[in-house]
Amino acid sequence: MSDQLDIDSIRYGEVNKSLKEKAAEKSPLLSLGDIEYKPFNSNSSKETAAELSYINKIQNSEHD
Q1: Confidence check: pLDDT of 5 > 70
Q2: Can you tell me the distance from the alpha carbon of 64 to that of 31, in angstroms, rounded to the nearest whole number?
Q3: Would residue 39 be called left, alpha or beta, if left means φ above 0 and alpha means ψ between -120 and 50 degrees?
Q4: Three-state SS annotation for the chain
């Protein structure tokens, strides 16, 4: 269980404070309230494992 908690705590890149503030501004084209938000899957989820497997497969096929 500890390994799963360690995996789920990994963050892929830090968000620049100025970019975070800019992202929070109201957009003339699309408001964040206008779109459905679904939280990301845990890093240890089956969905994430499938996505990483797919990426790995594509990367390996490029070397052929």
Answers
A1: no
A2: 44
A3: beta
A4: CHHHHHHHCCCCCCCCHHHHHHHHCCCCCCCHHHCCCCCCCCCCCHHHHHHHHHHHHHHHHHCC
The owner of tokens 């992202």 is 23
Contacting residues for 42 by C-beta, under 8 A, at least 6 apart:
7, 8, 48
The band of 64, judged by pLDDT with boundaries at 50, 70 and 90, is low
Tokens coding 14 = 């830090």
Q: Is the pLDDT of residue 1 over 60?
A: no
φ/ψ (deg, to 5) at 19: -70, -35
Contact 48, 42 (CB under 8 A): yes
pLDDT digits (tens, 9 = 90+) for 37-57: 788 889 899 999 999 999 999
